[in-house]
Write a structure and sequence with these properties.
Mean pLDDT: 97
Shape: globular
CATH class: Alpha Beta
Number of strands: 15
Low-confidence stretches: none
Number of helices: 16
Structural class: alpha/beta
CATH topology: Amidase signature (AS) enzymes
Largest sheet: 11 strands, mixed
Number of domains: 1
Strand order of the largest sheet: 1-3-2-6-8-7-14-15-11-9-10
Distance between the termini: 17 Å
CATH superfamily: Amidase signature (AS) domain
CATH architecture: Alpha-Beta Complex
């Protein structure tokens, strides 16, 4: 029965909790038991807090029995990526330098989850400071894919994706700076949203005005993503992008009602990428057929985006240099070699190089804005191939269908980086499996700040498939 509980989506659990059919204490115990059982196999948590979680669950249960008003996620356990500050709970950023760090305050997103009644039960794995699309760090080792121990979880929110995919907890907080939610979500068959800039306030980002990183939901279903988004959204003084931004009704949008008649969808199988795996191409073409069946008009995108990786890299790596250079110079430097190597790249770039990258960011934003003058959505694959081998190195070339195609970032997830830079909402969800049974992701991109519309299209697509009936064999 406990495993049955952990397989239920948050949308159903919240109804059953409110109806007193499911106990928050029993649910939390089931989640903690599954985490304890699967952690040695998957390695998706840095910290689990049973006493903290059970105390919160007891409080949640008392509120129900006393007839008190219930929050949107009352009694629902969640885990938070270990880049997200959680008051009184260790937050390491995946770094040996912060192994014993305990924040005094919650990040805004975590605080709002708790205000909605959700119960924090653990912190999920991340590469050090979220610096790559593979989840491993000197602090904890490697996180395995939920579907295959031989494959990477993806990253940098690898632990968050694997924990949800394995049915340990129904929902989790992730982050996304170049695809860090969508990459592991796609690699593990989950729903991963990178919302529009400002929709969920980012209270930890150092450069709020030039921000390209996002605190995000990680779930199995589109409705659960909508619930998390509804809980975390709304303006906050810490994030200038959020100020004056009124929340939409994301829950209503995520109901799979109606169709896509009258909607125009641009599609691109490559988005400027050179090689796409055969299984990914086939699943993508099949998903286009599903969208056409839902009534949408499909138009192939003929514009080619500029190569995003150099633009993203200058903005991102100079940010890292400003943040981590002092740590690297310390005598007791114990940072991940792959992070140190990337920070070193930024030494080549000047302030003018950084500003030129920002100019290009603006040009790319305006290009995408032009696409959405005549279209409602853009759809692409999320990744060029399914999950990479568990021992894949960040700087070594990847292989697609047995052929070496080049550097990891540019060739595995060219589809995700552009929308961190432009701020448009982009969601991945499962659209099939490859010949080895590994999940394949479809990315749906929408108009700037029209996140509700993206949820609606995703919910309709999700309802046309039966992938949610599949679970990894653990």
């Amino acid at each position: 029965m406990s495993d049955d509980l952990t397989r239920l989506p948050a949308s159903l659990l919240r109804e059953q909790i409110a109806a007193k059919k499911v106990s928050p204490v029993e649910l939390t115990k089931a989640v903690l038991a599954r985490a304890e059982r699967l952690q040695p196999v998957l390695n998706c948590f840095i910290t689990v807090v049973p006493e903290y979680a059970l105390k919160a669950a007891k409080k949640a249960e008392d509120a129900i029995m006393q007839g008190k008003p219930l929050g949107l996620l009352h009694g629902i356990p969640f885990a938070a990526k270990d880049l997200v500050n959680t008051a009184g709970v260790r937050t390491t950023f995946g770094s040996l330098h912060h192994e014993d760090n305990v924040p005094k305050e919650d990040a805004v997103a975590a605080a709002r989850m708790k205000q909605a009644g959700a119960i924090l039960f653990g912190k999920t794995t991340t590469p050090e400071f979220g610096h790559k699309a593979l989840t491993d760090a000197p602090l904890f080792g490697r996180t395995r894919n939920a579907w295959s121990a031989k494959r990477t979880s993806g990253g940098s929110s690898g632990g968050a994706a694997v924990a949800v995919a394995a049915g340990i907890g129904p929902i989790g907080i992730a982050t996304d700076g170049g695809g860090s939610t969508r990459i592991p979500a796609a690699a593990n068959g989950m729903v991963g949203l990178k919302q529009s800039n400002g929709v969920i306030p980012h209270s930890q980002v150092a450069d709020a005005f030039g921000n390209y990183t996002y605190v995000t939901p990680m779930t199995r279903t589109v409705m659960d993503t909508a619930l998390m988004l509804q809980a975390m959204t709304g303006p906050h003084p810490s994030d200038p992008w959020s100020i004056g931004l009124a929340p939409q009704d994301y829950i209503a949008a995520a109901r799979a009602e109606g169709n896509l008649k009258g909607k125009r969808i641009l599609w691109s199988a490559t988005l400027g990428n050179k090689v796409v795996a055969r299984d990914v191409q086939m699943a993508f073409e099949r998903s286009l057929g599903k969208l056409r069946d839902l009534g949408a008009e499909l138009v192939e995108l003929t514009d080619v985006l500029p190569n995003m990786e150099p633009v993203w890299k200058v903005i991102n790596h100079t940010t890292w240099k400003a943040r981590f250079d002092d740590l690297i110079r310390r005598e007791d430097n114990r940072l991940s070699p792959s992070l140190v190597r990337q920070v070193a790249m930024a030494a080549e770039w000047s302030g003018a190089d950084y500003q030129r990258a920002q100019f290009q960011r603006t040009e790319i934003f305006r290009m995408v804005q032009r696409w959405f003058e005549t279209a409602d959505y853009l759809v692409t694959p999320t990744l060029s191939r399914t999950a990479l081998p568990i021992d894949q190195d960040l700087f070594e070339p990847i292989r697609i269908d047995g052929i070496e195609v080049g550097e990891l970032r540019r060739n595995w997830f060219p589809y995700t980086m552009p929308f961190n830079i432009t701020g448009h909402p982009a969601l991945t969800l499962c659209c099939g499996y490859d010949s080895e049974g590994l999940p394949i992701g479809l990315q749906i991109v929408g108009r700037f700040r029209d996140d509700a519309s993206v949820l609606r299209a995703a919910a309709l697509y999700e309802s046309s498939e039966d992938w949610l009936s599949r679970w990894p064999d653990l």
